[in-house]
Design a protein that fits this description.
- By secondary structure, this protein is mostly helical.
- The chain folds into 2 domains: about 5-185 and about 280-310, 3-Layer(aba) Sandwich (Rossmann fold); about 195-275, Tyrosyl-Transfer RNA Synthetase (Orthogonal Bundle).
- The chain has helices at about 20-30, 45, 55-70, 85-95, 100-105, 110-115, 120-125, 125-135, 150-165, 205-215, 225-235, 240-250, 255-280, 280-310; strands spanning about 5-10, 35-40, 75-80, 140-145, 175.
- Helix 3 crosses helix 13 and helix 4 (about 85-95) runs parallel beside helix 14.
- It is globular, with a radius of gyration of 21 Å.
- The structure holds adenosine-5'-diphosphate (ADP) and tryptophan.
- Tryptophan binds near residues 9, 42, 45, 134 and 149.
- Adenosine-5'-diphosphate (ADP) binds near residues 23, 149, 184 and 194.
Length: about 325
């Protein structure tokens, strides 16, 4: 039986944090053992927020380095950047032509931006169409993501169905894979951990950064268990181990934070060391991305050819 196809992507928009890792990236590593995998750096999506070429270049290299450091393996998986496969933007255009404005106006990311009265680019409004193209070009079966991406995968399914309905069976319907326990990892302020909230524990943090972040976890003074500390601690130890530890140190927030610091340090240290090794050879990282782009292009261009045929623009 052929392997199921897995695809996921992350924007090169800054340092990954443990929320990204436990919510999405850890599954990437585990699932590459028994799936045909495509892992993307979605640089064209990130253009909506990063409009500085130097920063963009650096972020792409950084994210490729992060991918390799957590254990994504170019011998098992295709690791590439979206902009190397022009079929993504091409297919997104075709999806634009079968999607209505009111439908896209219901997307959370757009509604949030509108609620904040931000200036919204057409690119941001259109974000879900590019993401649908990312996924559907590769006939992906599974898309491992955090809970915040659920709606985007639903939009992808709707778009596939709509295209299939108009032009005949073309796209497979993908499933989001969201792990319930870590669907939303909380940050040091108790809100969803997110780069944009400045409440993260970076995945490759130095020891001093870990200490600083944990000491800054907001604790409420009611009850013996500091909830925000516990929520993060759960990522690193079983609930049984924690039950004992938190009973032993009931009400002693400082001791509990210190225990958490030790656990995070032990977890991050090998990842951080591996990342330094990978980062030492930027040439090798770029080579992996370039080759990955070539492989991805092969698959995407075959699919795109079929799409051009279906919509009636392929004449030779
Ligand atoms: P951020 O919100 O920090 O900018 P991204 O949007 O780059 O994160 O998300 C990259 C991946 O990590 C996505 O699959 C997303 O669902 C997942 N993710 C992000 N934050 C969390 C979190 N706090 N808990 C679980 N998964 C998360
Ligand atoms: N929207 C995703 C995020 O912000 C990134 C993304 C773009 C993606 N294309 C994708 C995720 C395709 C999974 C599959 O995190």
């Amino acid at each position: 039986m052929s392997k199921k196809i897995l695809l996921s992507g992350i924007q090169p928009s800054g340092k990954p944090h443990i929320g990204n890792y436990f919510g999405a990236m850890k599954q990437f590593v585990e699932m590459q053992e028994n799936h045909e995998c495509y892992f993307m750096i979605v640089d064209y999506h990130a253009l909506n927020t990063i409009q500085d070429a130097k920063v963009m270049r650096q972020n792409i290299v950084d994210l490729a380095t992060d991918y390799l450091a957590i254990g994504l393996d170019p011998r098992k998986s295709v690791i590439f950047k979206q902009s190397d496969v022009s079929e993504h933007t091409e297919l997104a255009w075709i999806f634009d032509t079968i999607t209505t404005m009111p439908y896209l106006a219901r997307a959370h990311a757009y509604k949030d931006a509108e609620a904040k009265e931000k200036e919204i680019s057409v690119g941001l409004f259109n974000y879900p169409m590019l993401m649908a193209a990312d996924i559907l070009l590769y006939d992906a079966d599974v898309v491992p993501v955090g809970a915040d991406q659920k709606q985007h995968v639903e939009i992808t399914r709707d778009t596939a169905q709509k295209f299939n309905h108009i032009y005949g069976e073309t796209f497979k319907l993908p499933e989001a894979k969201i792990l319930p326990d870590v669907a939303v990892v909380l940050g040091i302020d108790g809100r969803k951990m997110s780069k944009s909230y400045g409440n993260t524990i970076p995945l490759f943090a130095e020891d001093s950064e870990i200490e600083k972040a944990v000491m800054a976890i907001v604790t409420d003074s009611s009850g013996g268990v500091p909830k925000n500390v516990y929520e993060i601690h759960k990522l690193f130890r079983s609930e049984a181990e924690l039950a004992e530890l938190y009973k032993q140190h009931e009400g002693k927030y400082k001791a509990l934070k210190e225990a958490l610091i030790e656990d995070i340090k032990a977890f991050i240290r090998p990842l951080r060391e591996k990342r330094k090794e990978v980062a030492d050879d930027v040439g090798a990282v770029l080579d992996i991305l370039k080759k990955g782009g070539e492989k991805a292009k092969e698959k995407a261009s075959a699919k795109m050819d079929a799409v051009r045929e279906k919509v009636g623009v392929k004449l030779y």
